[in-house]
Design brief:
The structure is a homotrimer. By secondary structure, the first copy, chain A, is of the alpha+beta class. Chain A has 3 helices and 8 strands, in the order E-E-H-E-E-H-H-E-E-E-E. In chain A, strand 5 and strand 6 form a beta hairpin.
Chain lengths: ~140, ~140, ~140
C-alpha cells in the first residue's frame, strides 16, 4: 500500500471566500503515484470547510447570503468565562454546514469525479495562513 | 489491496425523492470480494446527496418540508451574467445539508452498520439519469 | 494491509450532549498498530453525530441553541400510519447537520490533526447505551 501526505497552505485576504482547489489536489495525486485508492482532503482548521460543488460564481454569491441567514454572527458576552473571546462562532457553524472533508475515489490515476464536481475550500475566518491536508492511500 | 468500482444509475421521475440504495451497495460489496476495508458511496452530481438514515417513510415526508424551509427556492435574475441560468440553487443547498458521500466500514464481508443505518440517495433535481459512485478498497 | 475495528459504548444521561472522544480514538489507534492510513469514526445510530470541532465549552452552548433553531422539535400526528411514533424527528435532523462520520488521516502512528481539531460525539436522543464505530485501515 502506498501512502502520500501533503499540506496545502492558503492565505485568503478577506474574512470569507470560496476557492477551487481541484488543480492542487490533482497535482498531489500525480506526485503520489497512486492509481487506485482513496484521497482524503480536509481542512486542518475548525473555521474552514472542504466540500464538493460546481465551479460557478453565481452559486457562491448565493451561498454567502444563505450561510449568513442559517448561521448568522452570534452576539457574545465577553464576561462569560467560557467564551473563546472571539466573534467566530458563526464561522464554526458555517463550516459545519458545508463540512470538514471530502473523500474522493482514485481510479486509473485520476480523481474519479462526475462532470461538475470540483473540490472547494470555504474560508470563514480568513486573513491568515491556513492549511488543507491531502492524504492519499492506495496502489 | 483490492479495489472495486461501480457506477449505479438512477432515474427519478419527480423533482425530489429519497431512495434507499442499501441493497445495491450490498450487491456491489459481494461482487468486490472485499472482506475488510472501506466503502465510499458518493453522488457524482452536485444536486443530489448520499447519506445514512432510517428507512422510515414519515421521516422523509418531514425532511421534504424541513429542507424546503432551510434551503428554499432562490429567486434568480436572468440578467445576471454569472447566473447558471437555472433555478437549481436550492438543489445545491439541500444537497450540501445532507452531504455528498458516506464512508462505510467493511467487516467480514458486510457493511458494518448499526441497526437502523441505511444508505439513501437524495434527489433534488430529478427527471434525468444520474449516477452514484461506489468505490471499495481493502482485502 | 492492516485492519482494525472497535465499538465504543457511550451512555449519555441527558437527552442531548457533546462529548470529546479524541482520547478514546487515540487509544484505538495505538491498539491498531497502524502507522499510515485512514481512520473512520462514525455513529452507529441515526440520532447521533460524529464531527470535528474545537474543544471549547462556550461553542457547544451556542450549538445547542443554534441546532434548536435550525432543527426544532417537529409536531407529529399519532394518527399518521407512517409515523415512527416517537418525537425524535428533530434528533435525525440535528444529526444530519453535524454529520454521521469523520475520516481522519493517520500519519506516523498519530491522528493527523490541525491544532484545534478534536473528534466529538453529538447525542440528540440520549438516556440509553449507544455505539460509535472505529475502523482503521493502513500499514
Amino acid at each position: 500500500m502506498k501512502s502520500y501526505r501533503k499540506e496545502l497552505w492558503l492565505q485568503v485576504p478577506t474574512r470569507r471566500a470560496f476557492i477551487n482547489i481541484t488543480p492542487q489536489i490533482q497535482e498531489c495525486l500525480r506526485e503520489s503515484g497512486v492509481r487506485e485508492g482513496l484521497a482524503l482532503v480536509n481542512s486542518m482548521h475548525v473555521t474552514a470547510a472542504v466540500f464538493v460543488d460546481d465551479d460557478e460564481k453565481g452559486l457562491y454569491r448565493h451561498y454567502e447570503v444563505w450561510l449568513a441567514q442559517l448561521a448568522p454572527v452570534v452576539a457574545t458576552d465577553p464576561s462569560d468565562e467560557d467564551t473563546i473571546g472571539e466573534d467566530i462562532y458563526d464561522a464554526h457553524m458555517k463550516r459545519q454546514l458545508l463540512g470538514r472533508e471530502v473523500v474522493v475515489a482514485v481510479t486509473e490515476g485520476r480523481l474519479d469525479f462526475g462532470h461538475w464536481e470540483n473540490i472547494f475550500y470555504g474560508e470563514f475566518d480568513g486573513g491568515r495562513k491556513k492549511r488543507v491536508l491531502v492524504k492519499i492511500i492506495g496502489e
